[in-house]
Structures are given as structure tokens and as C-alpha cells.
Amino acid sequence: MPGEFIELLRPLPPRLYSISSSQEAVGEEVHITVSKVQYTNKGRVRVGACSGYLAETLEADDEVLVYIEKNKNFRLPPNGDPIIMIGAGTGIAPYRAFLQHREATGHKGKSWLFFGERRFSSDFLYQVEWQKYLKKGFLGKIDLAFSRDQETKSYVQHRLSRQQEKLFKWMNDGAYLYLCGDKKKMAVDVEKTLLEIISKQGGMTSEKAKEYLHRLKKEKRYLTEVY
């Protein structure tokens, strides 16, 4: 019977998206940043269960079931300390919320964004907004890596390496370090690069570099939201 078969199936797990807006800026709205998963398998076009539903099925004013999964630590420092934001793809979402919040509250603390995607022409998410924040002084620095815009692929970790002297100084001066995006590849490569930077710029062994990064985590100055 169809009903018995359906009972054997496991429920679809929820899809988690970082909130990409600040209540101080948008009130009761909640913004998310979704990239539609789409690929071809055995001659058939497949789309992601949730991203395809959001992108292709929903109409204006439709209702969806949502819930909030809190990440109590992944938030702006309360005292306006410098922030270093590292993300690729939709991992840029919470940083949009950070800058919205700082603009809405009029706070221009030091901030530095590292963002990576495939192509500048089609994948520079929220480009106009970042330019606005730079012009107004709510974003201090931005470094971009578009991996397919040149023969040699360039990723966000390569931008970190190019700026390693200044980056390490920011870290030593009390900056909060944020990492958001792909857990399996991007986050691993970024953390490996951070350890190399700490070791080289701090004159530390690899073990001491790991201790340094672990101390930042304990002090809640190195915060991650990876998936």
C-alpha cells in the first residue's frame, strides 16, 4: 500500500541557512542567501530538495515551516573590536547581517572581508552593498578571490596568504576572526592557511601555532559557522 511505503521513508532532514539580515535594519523580515543546487545525473537534471523548492516552487506570500537554530557565539563582538570575516559562496550571508547591523547602529569598527566565488561577473554576491559599506566606512577592507577568472585558480585562502603580515597583526591586536562556508574543503584549507600564517609571522613551531589558534577559540575570537 502507498501509505505503508511512505511510512518506511525517513523524513527529509531540515536545511540550515545562515540569516543574512539584521533585525536592526529590516525589522520583522528575515533574509537568507540560497544557491540553487542543480546538476545532471544519468541524463536527468536534478535540483536540491530545499533550494529547488525555494527557487522554483514558492510564490509570493506562500508559507514555509521554519525554525531557528541558535549559534550563540557567531555574532559581532559587543565592544566594537576589529573583525576579520572569511567566507566563500553563500558563506558571505552572516557578514551581510554584520554590516547591516553596524550601519543601522552607526558603528564603524574596523572590519576586513575576505570573499571567494567562481566568477566576478556572475557570482559577486551583494557587490553593490559591499561597495556602499566601503564608501560609508562601515567596511574597511575587502579582498576577493574569483577562482575561474584566470588560468591559475585563486581561492580565499590564497588571499589570506598574500595579506598575512597585516592579517597576523590584526589578530595580535585583538581582532575577532570569523569563518563561514563549506566545511569539507574551504574551511579545512582556510584553517591550514591560518596555521601557516601564524607559524611564519609569529615565528612559531606548528605545535605553537595550533596552541595560538586554540587560544583564540577559547577566547571566542575565532568563530566558525560551517556546513
Rg measurement, Å = 20 Å
Proper CATH architecture of the domain at 83-226: 3-Layer(aba) Sandwich
The low-confidence runs, each spanning 5 or more residues with pLDDT under 50, are: none
CATH homolog superfamily of the domain at 83-226: Nucleotide-binding domain of ferredoxin-NADP reductase (FNR) module
Short description:
With about 230 residues, this protein is an alpha/beta fold.
Structural features, described:
α7 runs parallel beside α9 and α9 (186-202) crosses α10. By secondary structure, this protein is of the alpha/beta class. α4 links the parallel β3 and β4. The protein is built from 10 helices and 7 strands. The strands form 2 sheets. Strands 5-4-3-6-7 form a 5-stranded parallel sheet, with helices on both faces. Strands 1-2 form a two-stranded antiparallel ribbon. 25% of the residues are buried. The chain starts with a helix and ends with a strand. The chain has a domain at 83-226: Rossmann fold (3-Layer(aba) Sandwich), CATH 3.40.50.80.
Sequence-ordered SSE layout with sheet pairings:
Blueprint lengths: L1 H7 L14 H4 L11 E4 L2 E4 L1 H9 L25 E6 L4 H13 L5 E7 L2 H4 L3 H10 L4 E6 L9 H7 L1 H9 L3 E6 L4 H17 L3 H13 L3 E5 L1
Helix pairs in contact: 7-9, 9-10
Question: Main traits of this protein?
Answer:
227 residues; alpha/beta; Rossmann fold; two-stranded antiparallel sheet; 10 helices
